[in-house]
Amino acid sequence: MLIETFTLPDDGATRVAEQVFDGHPDRLSDAIAESIVQHAVARDARAVVQVEVMVDRDWCALTGRCAVSDVAVSPAEIERLVRSAYTRAGFGVPFCAATFGPGVFQGPAPAALEIVNRIRLEVLDPVERAVRELSDDQCIAIGHAEHGPETDWLPIEQWLSLRLRDALVALCARRRELGAGPDGKLLLLLERLGDGRWGVREVVVSVQHLAAASVVAIERAVRAEVRRVLVTEGERLSRWFVEPEGEVVVRFNPDPAIVV
Fold it and tell me: 149 lies in which domain range?
């Protein structure tokens, strides 16, 4: 699973984590690159894949190198992987016809996507393949374990922000009458309480939506889903996290000028 997250340094009193939805350009680019890596490794466990991806509206550009043994990955395979990533992210899925009319969807349609593929698709040299286990330094992982198995050893702010992200992505995909698209972002701010546990100070959520959509309806659905997730996780993680008793402070699609 790809995790697009950002956590500010722990000052002992507050923690912040960021998550983006599947249709966010950062996550979409990562998903395309990851699908190419997985496809190549399935063909050859010692494949060399070094790709860069850039997306802009209905245009996607790729560069780098992909080398596997025997038969090179074809341009047609790369295009299929790119279009599939857009489809999985929710692009091209029609909105509720009763609300917005027939044929209304969040662009770009994966089939109409313009793909500029500059990846060098090669057959891997046997000598390079033979030394991959001895010279491979393409993966550097830095992290730390915290809290417990209930959070898969993720820090509490990252765990909660991931649960919120997944719930809101599912909400936008399930409630097509809302007109919410696949792109979005959230920020979760926790504060340490007097008993040492963590509580929610506020949640900032931005969701892409159709111009004709009801912002009030989307905000109500988002607020309800945020509260549901936090209450559920509060029951599970009561050793570290205190579920909200009253209304959760949720800033929905706020003016960037007032978000500090």
Answer: 5-22+144-258
pLDDT, tens digit, for every residue of 114-153? 999 999 999 999 998 888 777 766 666 776 667 788 999 8
pTM for the model stands at 0.85
Distance CA 13, CA 193 (A): 8
Cβ-contact 187, 18 below 8 angstroms:
yes
Which residue type occupies 239? R
**Structure confidence at residue 146 (pLDDT):** 77
Continuous segment of H or E residues that includes residue 14: strand 14-20
How many domains are there within the chain?
2
- 48: β partners: 67
Asked if residue 95 and residue 154 are part of one domain, the reply reads: no
Q: Are residues 195 and 221 in the same domain?
A: yes
Q: Locate 187 and state its tokens.
A: 């920020």
| CATH number of the domain residue 57 falls in | 3.30.300.10
Token pair 């466990």 in the structure block, residue: 45
What is the average pLDDT score of the chain? 89
